[in-house]
Design a protein that fits this description.
- The structure holds 2 protein chains of 2 kinds.
- Chain A has 5 helices and no strands.
- In chain A, helix 3 runs antiparallel to helix 5.
- Chain B is an alpha+beta fold.
- Chain B has 13 helices and 10 strands.
- In chain B, strands 2-1-10-5-6 form a 5-stranded mixed beta sheet. In chain B, strands 3, 4, 7, 8 and 9 form a 5-stranded antiparallel beta sheet that branches.
- In chain B, a hairpin with an 8-residue loop joins strand 5 and strand 6.
- Chain B is elongated and about 115 Å long.
- The N and C termini of chain B lie far apart (99 Å).
- The chains are: A mainly alpha, B alpha+beta.
- Chains A and B meet through helix 1, helix 2, helix 3, helix 4 and helix 5 of A and helix 5, helix 6, helix 7 and helix 9 of B.
């Protein structure tokens, strides 16, 4: 039963108000120091995904699809999967891979030089494995032409 | 004047209210409604148009299944996060990084001192699962992103407010993940306190999450039930068809040919989740699996001064903490405060009855060490020495100059536990300087930063 003007049920309104109340209670405390920085990071988080990351990977995907064209045994997923896996690892562990953590030695005594090599090695293994699966697919297609 | 009256009479044949005040208001209202309808029917070129979104995989079933998977994961991450805060015993002196928590601390309870691996498992799950959910979160966002560009942006106040809460939901999820992952690799690029931002951010996220689930759960379950998952997993790319058109507008109105089946989509997302989990799980599980966490921040064992018996993870070196050689040499004293204050040298401590306990160190960042053999004086023996055999808590202070955890309090149950020690030796050798020489606290199930290193003073508070 929708409320006039509001456009939703009374339960909907109650739920939204409760959510905003709890968020405001926590938000006020969250913003009690460095409010501008936290707001920038929070809003930035959404913008970075919706307006940077998503359009970037969508556009890249569309580009590759167009470049590959139509094939009897599609190649696109054999590029998508290793690229996604490698990209996610890079996204999460970028500071270590790119040696950005200044305080690392002082805090942990551990090195960060090996991370780039490790990530490249993992990426290599992923693409090689994907290529192997593709070749197997191609061979199967050749043996059983439909 | 006469000509104007004639003109008005003629016009009034066709538009009865022309020229009156009522007409002006009606025309304005009618024009606005007409303009709104036109705007609604004519989204600008680009993502606000339904036919912009071409993937044939999108639809309520896919979103429903992804959402239900994410639901379970997020609840576990949130609960382990709440437990992590409880593990810090924030009601005791100097333990609370968010002292203005107010009502948000309603659930707090005294953190147990056993089993010894409690914090290790809790935090390992929290961080490993949080990292593992990144691909699932991105997949869910991918499946609903056409809704971001819904046209018109808000049809009613209800919709506008709901979109605001969705902003808190998405922003919260990404903010929590980003701050958590950055903190886990010690990359403190954010100009604010991690504990404050991450604790309150969790509540901002959870408030929006609870509302989102309350509003969408029934719809998601119905959608997820609309086709069998196992049946869908048998459908190849060639046979993949779009879902039936839905009122929400998720299903593409002009779908392209499928390049990937839903089975492949789930395989890809699931595989990514497993890979992300594997990139860190080893540094929490430890043992032989530590090396499998190839990209984990704690994928290596320390070397040099911290090798052999002291060869396990270090959190903050003595140099970073501002410890000077003369502070920990012959001049070091342990000051006990209670009903009977005492000052002890390291020799005095070694002369007391020693106890050995196998205990791990587990950090809030999600990594942990395996059980190490710690030897030292039981905390309850020190309490008895200070003439406070039944303490409410002990306030432990380090001699380190820098660090947010120079001091921490331990609760009665932690002090009285038989394996809680002021450790002097580990794995049969003296503590290395980085591991807290001459003495450090080690308590089962304790967050790592509360196992105070380079202890200088312990103040026992009577119950």
């Amino acid at each position: 039963m929708k409320l006039p003007v509001y456009g939703g049920s009374a339960g909907h309104l109650a739920g939204v108000l409760l959510c905003l109340a709890v968020a405001a209670y926590a938000g006020v405390r969250m913003l009690s120091s460095a409010p501008l920085a936290i707001l920038t990071w929070f809003v930035g988080a959404v913008l970075l995904h919706d307006l940077v990351l998503f359009p970037a990977y969508s556009a890249l995907d569309a580009l590759v699809r167009r470049a590959l064209g139509r094939r009897r045994t599609p190649l696109i997923n054999h590029l998508r999967v290793p690229a996604l896996f490698s990209g996610l690892l890079l996204l999460a562990w970028w500071p270590l891979i790119a040696r950005q953590v200044q305080a690392r030695r002082a805090l942990t005594t551990l090195p960060d030089e090996p991370y780039l090599g490790r990530w490249l090695a993992v990426t290599g293994v992923l693409f090689v494995a994907s290529a192997v699966v593709y070749v197997v697919r191609l061979m199967r297609r050749r043996e059983n032409p439909e | 004047m006469a000509a104007q009256t004639t003109a008005l009479t003629v016009v009034r044949r066709f538009r009865p209210y022309a020229g009156t005040r009522y007409s002006a208001r009606m025309t304005l209202g009618a024009s606005a409604a007409k303009a709104w309808k036109w705007i609604e029917a004519h989204p600008p070129p680009g993502p606000t148009r339904r036919d912009f979104w071409r993937s044939p995989l999108r639809g309520p079933w896919l979103t429903g299944v992804l959402g239900l998977m994410l639901l379970g994961g997020m609840v576990v991450v949130f609960l382990t996060g709440l437990f992590s805060y409880a593990a810090y015993n924030p009601d005791l002196p100097s333990n609370d990084q968010t002292p203005d928590r107010g009502l948000l601390g309603f659930y707090l309870f005294p953190w147990p001192a056993s089993p010894r691996w409690l914090y290790r498992v809790n935090q390992g799950i929290h961080v490993t699962l949080g990292v593992a959910l990144i691909p699932l979160l991105l997949a869910k966002l991918w499946s609903v992103i056409p809704k971001l560009f819904d046209w018109p942006p808000a049809r009613s106040p209800a919709q506008a407010l709901e979109r605001l809460t969705l902003f808190l939901l998405v922003g919260g999820a990404i903010f929590q993940t980003a701050t958590g992952v950055l903190n886990a690799q010690n990359h403190y690029v954010f100009p604010f306190s991690f504990y404050q931002a991450h604790f309150y951010g969790a509540w901002v996220f959870m408030s929006a999450f609870v509302l989102h689930v309350a509003l969408r759960l029934r719809r998601s379950v119905t959608a997820a039930r609309s086709r069998s998952l196992t049946a869908e997993l048998r459908v190849g790319t060639a046979d993949t068809t779009p879902e039936p058109a839905d009122p929400e507008g998720l299903v593409a109105s002009n779908p392209a040919a499928p390049t990937m089946s839903r089975r492949a989509f789930f395989g890809m997302v699931g595989g990514a989740c497993l890979l992300m989990a594997a990139s860190v799980a080893g540094q929490s599980i430890g043992g032989r699996l530590r090396g499998t966490a190839l990209l984990g921040p704690r994928a290596f064992e320390p070397t040099g001064a911290n090798s052999g018996p002291n060869g396990f993870q270090v959190n903050k070196t003595a140099q970073e903490a501002g410890i000077q050689e003369q502070q920990v040499g012959e001049a070091w004293r342990l000051e006990l405060r209670g009903r009977t204050p005492r000052t002890l040298t390291r020799q005095d401590l070694l002369a007391l009855p020693q106890h050995t306990a196998a205990l791990p160190i587990a950090c809030v960042e999600g990594w942990s060490t395996d059980d190490q053999q710690w030897t030292g004086v039981r905390l309850r023996d020190l309490a008895a020495l200070a003439d406070v055999p039944d303490p409410a808590y002990v306030f432990v202070e380090s001699i380190q100059r820098n660090g947010a955890f120079r001091a921490a309090s331990l609760r009665r149950n932690q002090i009285l536990h038989g394996d809680s020690l002021l450790a002097l030796r580990v794995n049969g050798a003296d503590l290395s300087l980085d591991h807290g020489y001459p003495a450090r606290v080690i308590v089962p199930a304790n967050p790592g930063v509360h196992n105070t290193k380079w202890v200088g003073r312990m103040t026992f508070q009577e119950a």
